[in-house]
Automatic annotation (TrEMBL):
This protein's record includes keyword Transmembrane: no
Protein family: Belongs to the ABC transporter superfamily.
Protein name per Swiss-Prot or TrEMBL: ATP-binding cassette domain-containing protein
BP term (GO), one: response to antibiotic
Domain ABC transporter: 10-245
Keywords: Antibiotic resistance, ATP-binding, Nucleotide-binding, Transport
Cellular component aspect of the GO annotation: plasma membrane
SUPFAM superfamilies tied to this protein: P-loop containing nucleoside triphosphate hydrolases
Length: 317
């Protein structure tokens, strides 16, 4: 075992995951990836549905055996030390799996008792986590009375009951409104400041940019890019993007007429993306050529532009 595999929180070398399909064929969901997550950082897996993110997370959570390669979690081998690893992890699944028959307090308390913690210790932690999740006033409310955002905060609070060294969050804000998402982002940032290592899967590019120190972009079971969000944007995209919307069916033909205005032009079904250092200049020169878009927008490049550059697809395809 190498030194990095004992010091890092997560180290994967050539990690693979295969599934046997109903027709007898083998489907490889994760195709030999290398990942290293350092202590105290927020690390992201970014990609569309089916990229292999959730399969990777289940292996990291020590609930799904690896099919090939090497994996060490907290310096341990999940094939041998699964229970010890799971005792030091917090896991927030993609779907809330709270007990609908229990109130908010009991959802936390009973889960805490699973870890063999003394009753008073669990009670104290429940109080702290209710305050952290801004659910103190809802302690006696049934789960089915909570909003989607409240349920998500409760699920994350529950995953912290054992004070984990490593917190795994699978699509933490899917289905939440913008206000609830920002509240959750703030709570995750506070956890990181407190020293908790976060591993996040998401297909929201703004979420990855806000939360992650480093990330990998996955597509079809492989890693297509790795680095800090801003580094990836600087490396694979331009400073700005001009989005130009024309009539239905016109975009492919117009792309050739605008190709010289930027470093590259992407044709999407409903708009053209012109990548350039100065998006406003692109819009002005488009009008100078007698082309009048129905709508135009200038924005900074995002991780979705990185993904489009690398794979030819948007993150939500």
């Amino acid at each position: 075992m190498t030194e990095s595999m004992t010091e890092a929180m997560i180290v994967a070398r050539g990690l693979r995951k295969s599934f046997r399909q109903s027709n007898g064929a083998t489907f490889e969901a994760v195709k030999g990836i290398d990942v290293e997550v350092r202590r105290g950082e927020a690390f992201g897996f970014l990609g569309p549905n089916g990229a292999g993110k959730s399969s990777t997370m289940r292996m990291v959570a020590a609930v799904s055996p690896i099919s090939g390669g090497e994996l060490r979690i907290l310096g341990m081998d999940p094939a041998v030390d699964g229970p010890a690893i799971r005792g030091r992890l917090g896991v927030c699944p993609q779907e809330d799996n709270l007990d609908q028959e229990l109130n908010v307090f009991d959802n936390l308390y009973i889960y805490g008792r699973y870890f063999g913690l003394p009753k008073q210790v669990v009670r104290d932690r429940v109080g702290e986590l209710l305050e952290f999740a801004k659910l103190t006033e809802k302690a006696k409310s049934r789960v089915d009375e909570l909003s989607g955002g409240m349920k998500r905060r409760l699920t994350i609070a529950r995953s912290l009951i054992n004070r984990p060294d490593l917190l795994l969050l699978d699509e933490p804000t899917t289905g939440l409104d913008p206000q609830a998402r920002h509240l959750l982002w703030d709570q995750l940032f506070r956890l990181k400041q407190a020293g908790v290592t976060l591993v996040i899967t998401t297909h929201y590019m703004d979420e990855a940019e806000q939360l992650c120190d480093r990330l990998v972009v996955m597509d079809k079971g492989v890693i297509v890019a790795e680095g800090a969000p801003r580094e990836l944007i600087n490396e694979h995209s331009t400073r700005e993007v001009a989005e130009l919307r024309f009539g239905v069916g016109e975009h492919a033909a117009l792309a050739e007429k605008l190709a010289d205005l930027g470093e590259r032009v992407e044709v999407l079904p409903d708009r053209l993306l012109v990548y350039a250092a100065d998006g406003e200049e692109v819009v002005a020169r488009t009008h100078e050529r007698g082309l009048e878009p129905i709508a135009s927008l200038v924005r900074r490049s995002t991780l979705e532009d990185v993904f489009l550059r690398l794979t030819g697809r948007t993150l939500v395809d």
